[in-house]
Design brief:
The structure is a single chain. Helix content is about 70%, strand content about 0%. By secondary structure, the chain is mostly helical. The chain has a single domain, classed as Serine Threonine Protein Phosphatase 5, Tetratricopeptide repeat (Alpha Horseshoe). The chain starts with 20 loop residues before the first helix and ends with a helix.
């Protein structure tokens, strides 16, 4: 079954989900304070407070992810992406481990919510990208290949990222073998 991951059928998006007014204010405060610099810390504190108040709200997770990503705190952004994947999987009644996802699972999940299914796959893609940035192309490739297995028409554009990951793996292997060859011949 080919599903169009760009089709939304008028469903609500994650940011349409009602948000506690205090949390909304904290996210606004974080946006206003973002430019104050990391040493100030008020933007991060506001987002973390929002997270403690609404730990499963996808708007909060997206705000935290973006904050960490744009600050180049990729490990922290990866934790948030993995949290979003877990929450989406639970809401969609999917396997806990993304590695266990199959096309049949996602076929059923779109009946629950196409937008949440797409969000899950984009969070998985984002986590793969972060793993590339963190120097773990093999882990990134596993995520990209899982998405490609489901998104056979590459609507989410993971094929180019998978190619980057494969190239990084190959370069690391050549470098490793090159060092070994130099060691044996020296």
């Amino acid at each position: 079954m080919a599903m169009d991951l760009q089709e939304f059928n008028g469903e609500d998006m994650y940011f349409d989900e009602p948000l506690n007014p205090e949390v909304e204010g904290l996210i606004t405060l974080a946006a206003e304070r973002y430019g104050d610099g990391p040493e100030d810390g008020s933007a991060e504190r506001a987002l973390l407070r929002a997270y403690f108040l609404e730990p499963e709200h996808l708007t909060v997770l997206v705000a935290l992810y973006r904050f960490f990503y744009y600050r180049h705190c990729y490990r922290e952004a990866l934790l948030i992406a993995e949290r979003a994947i877990a929450i989406c999987s639970e809401r969609l009644r999917l396997p806990v481990r993304w590695q266990d996802l199959g096309e049949g699972d996602l076929g059923r999940s779109v009946l629950v919510s196409m937008t949440l299914t797409r969000f899950l796959l984009l969070a998985l893609k984002g986590s793969g990208y972060l793993l590339l940035r963190l120097g773990d192309p093999a882990a990134a490739l596993a995520r990209f290949e899982k998405i490609a297995e489901i998104d056979t028409s590459d609507r989410l554009g993971v094929q180019s990222l998978a190619s980057l990951a494969r190239g990084a793996i190959t370069r690391a292997e050549v470098e490793r073998l090159g060092d070994r060859v130099r060691y044996l011949s020296g």
